[in-house]
């Protein structure tokens, strides 16, 4: 007997799905902001003349790039709650799955953003730094006012592409029971006996959002392309 699709459960699940999408977008946004800021510091450390800083930053990046994201999420889900409970006396009943996910994604993505930013900085002509130093700027001022603005312009499409990948990866928080968009769709589908319909709908939503974002990135690449 052929499977009979029934899409009516999706309409009733819209509020739950929207709440899940808010969770997904929050994790994505926080991880992008923290990841870019921390990733920039890591990139600067790796490019600095300080051997200790460079090696520590390289070790951090290599560590997180060598471990599956799923494992990182589980690690921080086990570590962060215990740390907060011991350091700040957080009640055992407090649900801090969201905080664990934010920490895990932010620190994990910083390793990938660091490599993108490091490549972006290296793409700027060394003559730019020499000219800035000749004008009397310190090395830190030259990096902040001259090099980084040009580097971010060069690597903006790559940063946005990594953000799209991050948005997709947020679905992995289901392993710690956090109700993101995918998790909400799965729970509703399992509850209503319409798992196929809800997962197909969730997949379509991810495809539409990510494909639209990728088209915007392509347009941006064309605008930033010299000549």
Query: Rg, please?
Result: 21 Å
Order of helices and strands: HHHHHHHHH
Q: Can you count the beta strands?
A: 0
Integer average pLDDT: 88
Low-confidence stretches: none
What separation lies between the terminal Cα atoms?
A: 60 Å
Shape: flat
Number of helices: 9
Structural class: mainly alpha
Strand content: under 5%
Helical content (DSSP H or I, runs of 4+): over 70%
Please summarize the sheet with the most strands. Answer: none
What this model shows, in words?
With about 230 residues, this protein is mainly alpha-helical. The chain contains 9 helices and no strands. The protein has helices at about 10, 15-45, 50-65, 70-90, 95-125, 125-135, 140-170, 180-190, 195-225. Helix 2 (about 15-45) packs antiparallel against helix 3 (about 50-65). The longest helix is centred in the N-terminal third of the chain and has 34 residues, at about 15-45. The mean pLDDT is about 90.
């Amino acid at each position: 007997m052929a499977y009979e699709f029934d899409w009516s459960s999706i309409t009733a699940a819209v509020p739950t799905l929207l709440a899940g999408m808010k969770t997904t977008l929050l994790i994505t946004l926080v991880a992008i902001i923290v990841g870019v800021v921390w990733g920039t510091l890591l990139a600067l450390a790796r490019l600095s003349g300080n051997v200790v800083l460079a090696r520590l930053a390289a070790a951090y990046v290599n560590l997180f790039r060598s471990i599956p994201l799923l494992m990182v999420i589980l690690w921080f889900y086990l570590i962060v709650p215990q740390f907060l409970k011991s350091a700040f006396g957080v009640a055992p009943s407090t649900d801090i799955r969201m905080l664990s996910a934010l920490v895990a994604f932010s620190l994990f993505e910083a390793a990938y953003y660091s490599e993108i930013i490091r490549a972006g900085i290296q793409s700027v002509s060394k003559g730019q730094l020499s000219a800035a130093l000749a004008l009397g700027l310190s090395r830190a001022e030259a990096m902040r006012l001259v090099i980084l603005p040009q580097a971010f312009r060069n690597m903006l499409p790559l940063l946005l592409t990594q953000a799209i990948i991050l948005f997709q990866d947020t679905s992995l928080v289901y392993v710690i029971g956090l109700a993101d968009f995918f998790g909400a769709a799965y729970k509703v589908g399992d509850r209503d006996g319409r798992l196929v319909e809800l997962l197909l709908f969730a997949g379509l939503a991810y495809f539409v959002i990510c494909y639209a974002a990728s088209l915007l990135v392509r347009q941006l690449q064309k605008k930033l392309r010299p000549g």
